[in-house]
UniProtKB/TrEMBL annotation:
This is Ribonuclease P protein component. Consists of a catalytic RNA component (M1 or rnpB) and a protein subunit. Its EC number is 3.1.26.5. HAMAP family: RNase_P (MF_00227). The keyword Ribosomal protein does not apply.
Length: 120
RNA sequence: UUAGUAAAUCGCCUUAUCGCUUUAAAUUUAGUUUAAAGAGGAAAGUCCGGACACCAUAGUGUAAUCAUAGUGGUUAACAGCCAUCCACCGAAAGGUGAGGAAAAGUGCAACAGAAAGUAUGUACAGGUCAUGCUGUAGUGAAACCAGGUAAACUCUAUGAGGUGCAAUACCAUGUAUACUAACGUUUGAGCGUACACGCGCGAUUGUUAGAGGGUAGGUAGCUAAAGCGUGUUGGUAACAGCAAGCUCAGAUAAAUGAUAAGGGCUCUUUGUUAAGAGUACAAAAUCCGGCUUAUAGAUUUGCUUAACUA
RNA sequence: GCUGAAGUGGUGGAAUUGGUAGACACGUUGGACUUAAAAUCCAAUGUCCAUUAGGACGUACGGGUUCAAGUCCCGUCUUCAGUA
């Protein structure tokens, strides 16, 4: 399969995000944290780096791009196990700007943790 | 040569693989393929000036408030820019300057000092018929000078209606023209977007405030313009005119990326070709013209000659 | 994105019209009282140098105006608030 991450896979609805943070559950693999919730619309994924941790816009965008890229390359871990009816939000918690290798390994860990925690 | 100084430019590159956004075309159906394009000199701060939109219909006088401040020019406009005078800094090139008015009026000046703006005390010296008439001493930032202070009020000249694309228009979904309080319907609540008066507008679902219910998706606005570089003419210059050419981001939990390899550039070690490290500041959010602030490093040009060498 | 407001010892919070910066309260430290503690009372408490007298620097940071700036003006930084 192709490793894509386009508009339709992105979590955008403000309403859905509010619900996610209100009712969702979470897993974490420092410095990443994932909030998840079941839905009916297929896999929707968002990515976030807080303004509190990264004051400059350049750094925030940089971190979000790395997270997005890491998710894109590892999303088969979810799809192969038929985890496809979920809303996910991946947060970056640390204040350090990471390199790609770190984000990549942590993302793998995070997604396998999520896989174990889910019922199927 | 070094140093200084002014101005301008660049601010990593190439290839491969995997991705993202927009537009166009094809195919077919909402996916795929192909092609093209896809961050900056400051995109930043939001400090000025506009365009544009709305604010009874956006009209409008006075006063107030705010801004600007040598002179002339430039511009759509400006607190910008250019030229120039003056003052200060510098050896020079050059830099800096909220640089109008104190002889319209009001205020202010701690401590010190006899006295701080209605002046004139003491000591000494000089002078006179005589007298603070003249000088010096002492205090202070300032001691009589049409003194200082206008980044104190003020006056003069000029300019400014307010709010900002989360403006605004339309489509879709949904709800509560309900409830409470105050005021009001031509004898005028309130509005004209800080405030006051005048003129004006103003209620079939009135106005303001409170507490509360619902939506928070999409489309337009939105990127071809005070546009860009080139040549040429006028002008000391900022800038303006003309000519032919070019089309150059448009996202919205927000695209412009990731990995690998190679090459530049700088520094360090080594000691003459290797190794290691580094490669700034910073991410469009309606759009333009400026200003301010941040910025590893590299390049070019003009000017100055104090110092060093010949 | 757009639009406002604020910044003073360890903390809250004063300082009139520019004229001795830190009033007042809390906290902290030391002492008194007590067998011990609390409460109460007394004293000290910005930093540095001298450790007697005193001097220098201090109102987020950097400049300017002024004889003199927490206060007036300009720039920067940080924090907070409003707005579909």
């Amino acid at each position: 399969m192709r490793l894509t991450f386009n508009k339709h896979e992105k979590l955008k609805s403000q309403k859905a995000i509010e619900q996610l943070f209100a009712e969702g559950q979470s897993v974490s693999a420092y410095p990443l944290r994932l909030v998840y919730k079941k839905n009916e619309h297929g896999l929707k994924v968002g990515v976030s780096a807080s303004k509190r941790n990264f004051k400059k816009a350049v750094d925030r965008i940089r971190v979000k791009r790395l997270l997005r890229e890491a998710y894109r390359l590892n999303k088969s871990m979810l799809i192969d196990h038929k985890i496809d009816n979920y809303t996910l939000m991946i947060l970056y918690i640390s204040k350090e700007i990471p390199d790609f290798k770190l984000v990549d390994t942590k993302m793998k860990k995070l997604l396998s943790k999520l896989k174990d925690q889910l019922p199927n």
